[in-house]
């Protein structure tokens, strides 16, 4: 015996599996790019990008006189679509457009390392180790290959991120020691990148992984839910078609009973209902057929008797015999209809409508039904026509009379 697995349990199980898959995917991405807080956003790929850019800027500034530092930052700003500013850690602006730092940014800027904490200067006096350039692709467009003697990263530089309002701005700071060619010494500086958007033109935050994860989540959800939903909708469609056929009188239709849930139980119930209805209808037809057959014999005998009476009746009795004959004829017609119904299906017989003169039909019914001096007054125009079946219309009028 197959184990019954309720539909509610199926839906709940698939939901839990779907949520677990989505949670796992988001957890992996969260661990890779987030670690709680704005500063933690810079611990992943975004921090690597910013550090690489800061190292390229440090080399450019180290090879450029101080009076040209604004031009260098302007070139980088245009390339990365953010605004670059250079500050000493004590808050003094060294390069970039003049800018009033918001208090939260100024507070974080003042937490920079003291000059005494700077590491030993490399061969070019930059304090970065002077071990060769990073890849050429790190430089902005128009800079060409990396400069000879460009320092490589010895380790990640301290970074911070801050959001300010009125207006909304996103600030990212990268601290590093910068060689001042004029003063011939290293300065503890912070390169500030300012953007109106959270992504910073792709420099602060890369939305591509999140978009990819979103599409992957939708795709996985479709893969998880499609088999279940498709199975349910297919079963419901089969039941809908089956019940429509049962309503048309086709009680031999049957549904598959393979499912072991509520839909399987419903299919079994529909099959039992169809079988029971088929039995009931067959019994009713059999009863009607038997009754009609039983009525045919006495009606036939009555008609024979009326034929004998008609031959022996005088003129006064002939009218009564004709009336009885008409009534027997109507009873015979009704019995024949019962026989036809017992042999036919449940579909209603299509009635052929045709033009009928109402005055003629009503006159015939009144003459047949009204006896013994009774009076029925009718007012119907002789030209009035109706679309009807003459026999059924005559019966309806006779019931009224």
How does this structure look, described?
Among the domains are: 34-206, no CATH class; 350-401, no CATH class. The protein is an alpha+beta fold. The chain has helices at residues 7-33, 45-62, 69-80, 103-109, 208-247, 262-312, 315-343, 358-369, 390-400; strands spanning 83-88, 93-95, 159-164, 169-180, 185-195, 354-357, 385-388. Helix 6 (262-312) packs antiparallel against helix 7 (315-343) and helix 8 packs across helix 9. Strand 4 (169-180) and strand 5 form a beta hairpin. It has a 5-stranded antiparallel sheet, sandwiched between helices. A two-stranded antiparallel ribbon has the order 6-7. It is 52% helix and 11% strand.
Order of helices and strands: HHHEEHEEEHHHEHEH
Beta-strand proportion: 5-15%
Backbone shape: rod-shaped
Mean pLDDT across all amino acids:
76
Number of helices: 9
Count all strands and give the number. Answer: 7
């Amino acid at each position: 015996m197959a184990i019954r697995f309720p539909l509610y349990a199926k839906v709940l199980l698939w939901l839990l599996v779907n949520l677990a898959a989505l949670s796992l995917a988001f957890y992996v991405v969260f661990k890779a790019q987030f670690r709680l807080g704005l500063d933690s956003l810079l611990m992943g790929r975004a921090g690597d990008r910013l550090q690489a850019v800061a190292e390229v800027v440090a080399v450019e500034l180290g090879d450029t006189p101080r009076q040209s530092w604004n031009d260098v930052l302007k070139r980088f700003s245009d390339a990365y679509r953010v605004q670059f500013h250079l500050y000493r850690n004590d808050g003094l602006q060294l390069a970039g457009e003049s800018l009033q730092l918001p208090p939260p940014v100024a507070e974080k800027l003042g937490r920079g390392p003291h000059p005494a904490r700077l590491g030993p200067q490399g061969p070019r006096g930059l304090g970065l180790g002077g071990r060769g350039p990073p890849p050429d692709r790190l430089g902005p467009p128009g800079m060409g290959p990396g400069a000879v003697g460009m320092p490589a990263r010895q380790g990640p530089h301290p970074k911070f991120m801050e959001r300010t309002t009125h207006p909304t701005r996103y600030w990212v700071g990268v601290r590093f020691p910068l060689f001042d060619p004029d003063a011939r010494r290293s300065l503890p500086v912070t390169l500030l990148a300012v953007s109106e958007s959270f992504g910073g033109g792709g420099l602060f935050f890369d939305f591509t992984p999140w978009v990819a994860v979103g599409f992957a989540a939708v795709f996985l959800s479709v893969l998880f839910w499609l088999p279940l939903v498709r199975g349910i909708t297919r079963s419901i469609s089969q039941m809908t078609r089956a019940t429509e056929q049962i309503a048309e009188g086709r009680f031999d239709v049957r549904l598959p009973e393979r499912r072991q849930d509520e839909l399987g139980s419903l299919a079994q119930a529909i099959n039992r209902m169809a079988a029971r209805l088929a039995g009931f209808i067959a019994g009713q037809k059999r009863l009607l057929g038997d009754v009609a057959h039983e009525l045919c014999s006495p009606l036939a005998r009555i008609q024979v008797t009326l034929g004998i009476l008609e031959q022996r009746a005088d003129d006064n009795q002939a009218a009564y015999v004709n009336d009885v004959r008409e009534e027997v004829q109507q009873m015979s017609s009704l019995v024949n209809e019962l026989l036809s119904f017992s042999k036919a299906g449940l579909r209603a017989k299509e009635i052929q409508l045709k033009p009928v003169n109402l005055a003629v039909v009503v006159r015939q019914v009144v003459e047949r039904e009204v006896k013994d001096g009774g009076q029925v007054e009718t007012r119907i125009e002789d030209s009035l026509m109706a679309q009807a079946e003459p026999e059924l219309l005559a019966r309806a009028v006779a019931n009224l009379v």
